[in-house]
Specification:
Largest sheet: 2 strands, antiparallel
Strand order of the largest sheet: 1-2
Shape: globular
Helix content: 55-70%
Radius of gyration: 20 Å
Distance between the termini: 24 Å
Length: 328
């Protein structure tokens, strides 16, 4: 029970921090700081922080030869491809609402990855829970918004972001049995920072102004993104993936826009309507449904219990979850 609750707490911690990340990123964008500057800076700072933590904790950081391609693909998918696709998808659709809704389809694709690749169990009730969660998201984000001239291209690019995020989750799952979550995330962001170097040099520092870029109004949100939304959030996310599996963990991603709306309300940056409060409630009910498994007793009575989580070090296949030898 303790391990199960810890895994759920880790997933909710991640989603809460990622919800806050939109607020801090929006502050940087409002100051005119390009994505090509603060995303690489965020990635590098997160990687260095985790390196120091892993070094102090004396965790093994040696990468096995066969795992190098997985680590490189992990970093390529997230943060590199995902952030580029999400940013340009938003730019072309010119609709934050539609962008959020497209990105939130991630659980549908991740559920298929969990089912067909990692052989995880996902019941009809869990499937209903996914759609209930997405319905709650729609209630929170629905607005009358205009779309851009290149709307279709924007949608296609956003689905590239979705695919890259699902791939990142799969690569993380494939690594969690061999490496500590903090080590996986450390390499993810250090390698990701390297991938960003061409964009950082050509676009990120193109309009560099020391008075602005080195001011506390830029340093504070950048550090918050690096320490909380990258280093901490991705580490807890890797932990959740390891113990809950790909399909059941990914559903929590649909809560991220909901958490963003709630955080904006709490920070006084936005007011929520009755419809949005209803959406938050519906989203939470949907998440609960996705974490339920139906088990049948010998006396043909059916009971619903929270999904069984395999204990640390349990063998593959226990509790209906295969544990291969998984992004953060």
């Amino acid at each position: 029970m303790k391990g199960k609750l810890t895994a759920y707490l880790a997933a909710m911690t991640t989603i809460t921090l990622w919800g806050l990340s939109y607020i801090w990123a929006d502050r940087l964008l409002a100051l005119g700081i390009p994505v090509e500057f603060f995303v690489p800076a965020r990635s590098l700072a997160a990687g260095i922080l985790l390196f120091c933590i892993n070094k102090i904790a004396r965790k093994s950081m040696r990468i096995k030869g066969k795992d190098w391609p997985k680590f490189l693909m992990l970093a390529l998918c997230m943060p590199f491809i995902y952030f580029i696709a999400e940013t340009y998808g938003l730019k072309l659709t010119e609709s934050p609402t539609i962008t959020a809704l497209v990105v939130a389809t991630n659980p549908l694709f991740a559920m298929m990855v969990g089912l067909f690749i990692f052989k995880e169990k996902f019941s009809a009730v869990n499937v209903v829970g996914v759609f209930v969660t997405l319905a709650g998201l729609w209630l929170v984000t629905w607005t009358r918004s205009s779309t851009g001239t290149y709307f279709v291209w924007g949608i296609l690019i956003l689905f590239i972001a979705v695919i890259s995020e699902v791939s990142q989750i799969a690569f993380t799952k494939s690594l969690t049995d061999s490496y500590a979550p903090s080590v996986i995330v450390m390499y993810q962001f250090l390698f990701g920072a390297v991938f960003f170097i061409p964009l950082f040099v050509t676009k990120g520092i193109k309009s560099f102004e020391p008075g602005l870029y080195l001011s506390w109004s830029v340093i504070y949100p950048t550090l918050a993104l690096a320490l909380l939304c990258s280093a901490t959030a991705f580490t807890t996310w890797a932990y959740a993936i390891k113990h809950l599996g790909v399909a059941h963990t990914s559903v929590f991603l649909a809560l991220s826009p909901l958490m963003t709306a709630l955080a904006a309300f709490l920070f006084g940056e936005e007011r929520l309507s009755g419809m949005q409060w209803l959406g938050l409630a519906v989203g939470m009910i949907g998440i609960y449904l996705t974490q339920i498994v139906i088990t049948t007793k010998n006396n043909n009575d059916t009971q619903r219990t929270l999904r069984n989580i395999p204990a640390e070090g349990s063998s593959a296949g226990e509790a209906g979850v295969d544990r291969p030898g998984t992004q953060a």
